[in-house]
Amino acid sequence: MAGPSLDTHAQCDRWQQRVAYTMSVDLDHRTHRFTGASLLKYTNNSPDTLQTVFFHLYLNAFKPGSEMDVRSRTIADPDPRVGSRIAALMPDQVGDLQVLDLKQEGRSAVLTPMGTVLKVDLPKPLLPGRSTVLTYNFTGQVPVQIRRTGRDNAEGVAYSMSQWYPKLAEYDHRGWHAYPYVGREFHGVWGDFDVTLTLDSAYTVAATGVLQNPEQVGHGYPSRKPIKRPSGDRLTWRFVAKDVHDFAWGADRDFKHVVLPMADGPELHFFYKDQPELEAVWKELPTYMERCFRYMNEHFGKYPWPQYSFVQGGDGGMEYPMLTLITGKRRLGSLVGVSVHECVHSWYYGVLASNEGRFAWMDEGFTEYAGSQVMELLFPRGEDPHAGSIAAYRELVESGRHEAPSIHADHFLTNRTYGTTAYSFGEMFVHQLGAVVGEKTLAAGLKRYYATCGFKHPEPIDFERVMEKQSGVELDWYFDQWVNTTRTLDYAITEVLQVGDSLRITLARKGDQCMPVDLELLEKDGRSMLYHVPLSLMRGARPADGDRQPFTTLPAWQWTNPTYQFTVPGRLADLTSIMLDPYRRTADMDLTNDRVYLGGGVGGMVRP
């Protein structure tokens, strides 16, 4: 399904494992328990022989004493949605997921449950380039909704079914990624899902994939044939999804189902409780989301699947392939905002699908970056839509809890640090890159990244190399220092001196981070002169025609030098100010030394 690559030998062209699930699941709404049978074809495209595989059993996190329970009660700033709620669950309220038996091509495997992870020792080694078939039965209990998944959420939605089935863990060039579930994000294997769900016929079901039997189901799904439901009080739904890495669904008796076909995009589906207080806002959502998809298709790359569903449920907003679960009792701006963020995840969580455990900022941050631009389109303010990400990053640094973004998502010391790093730092990192390579280059590079690395689980090195190819400059210094350290940026104007008919300006690097520098000389008549100082480590410079307005490029700042001095034509008497980073698109920590207000005469000297 991935589009053609722009690079003959793409940086992220490495092997990918492959799965094909065929699942049949039966849910009893009276007991909130379900049973399932699965046939899983697993293709080992790695160069390694696999004797063991791992599954995620996420629902087991919702039991007293689980790693999620303990983590949420011992971290410095617990998520209020979780807190100590898991510890207080009764037996009929907990989550549970068990694999009853598992066979590999008819031979029983050895199963070792490990909380939210299941270790499976295969009776037959899976050789490189070969496939095997695993068959297993499983049973589960849907927990009271606490975090993302569960039953009877705060808005009364019956079922928010995410992280609900035994899910094979990803194996890649770094090995297995069988992370325990403590409340962070997810990673999965590319594949196809053919899922049959059977439950009470009164429920309307929304799910990943495309419904295959709408004529037997109804419930608002378009059908080319007359609706003819089977007799009885139970109904079976069959959904098929291609080239996805997870499967989620939601169900409620009172769902209203609205469908908006797009002429050159996916069919959009909206599921929400049929209540007057929701109708007033939700009826406006489809038009906004159509504009969102059109903008994303044009500016970041085309959405590849035939359908997308916005489903009321969960505990906030959470993305899944072809579907999101969002709380729905919101004002219009909030409902559009959460919907934009979650559907934009389709490009980064859905198509690119970086490992969110190791590189959460690549998913959340890129999504925030694109989503901020969509929101500016939908609700124009005439301001820099990314400014908030820089402000949030500064607040984190000033709090003293700044941690390197390269830390695994599960191991940040506080929820606040994780959240700000994944969302705000990630957005800032992409936005700030425009100050290095140019904003037109950044926009083209983001489209190239999507086309080149879609369906390939890219890592930071892959985005780095795509942007290097697009820009023609070296960027390893930018990625190494911003992603792997907690160094901060602070450049200053330290002296402005009139020398004949010229100005001699001295800049200093006060912080430990290296960056190229932009400088604006603002004249009294309102005209401005822009100068760009590249960093020597770039081995090149930002193109003068790739930014907001033309500028003059000065010799590179040798990175080992703590100061930089240059001379340009001009008179102090003609200027009102000299300013670093006039577009405010870098995370300079001290803005007080970035600007000099001038009023001196010829021969005068100004020190900030």
Give a short summary of the structure.
This protein is α+β, with helices and mostly antiparallel strands and 608 residues long. It has eleven helices and 32 strands.
What can you see in these coordinates?
A hairpin with a 2-residue loop joins strand 22 and strand 23. This protein is α+β, with helices and mostly antiparallel strands. It has an eight-stranded mixed β-sheet. Strands 19-20-21-23-22 form a five-stranded mixed β-sheet, with helices on one face. The longest helix has 23 residues, at 415-437. The chain folds into three domains: 18-354 and 361-378, Immunoglobulin-like (Sandwich); 387-484, no CATH class; 491-606, Sandwich (Immunoglobulin-like), CATH 2.60.40. The termini are far apart. Mean pLDDT is 95; it is low at 1-6 and 600-605. The chain contains eleven helices and 32 strands. Helix 4 runs parallel beside helix 5, helix 5 crosses helix 6 and helix 6 packs across helix 8.
According to CATH, the homologous superfamily of the largest domain is tricorn interacting facor f3 domain
Name given to the CATH architecture of the largest domain: Sandwich
CATH topology label of the largest domain: Immunoglobulin-like
Quote the distance from N terminus to C terminus. Answer: 57 Å
Mean pLDDT: 95
Spatial sequence of strands, sheet with the most strands: 5-4-8-2-1-14-17-16
Q: What would you call the shape? A: elongated
How many helices does DSSP assign?
Answer: 11
Name the poorly predicted regions: 1-6, 600-605
Strand elements, count: 32
What's the domain count? 3
CATH class of the largest domain: Mainly Beta
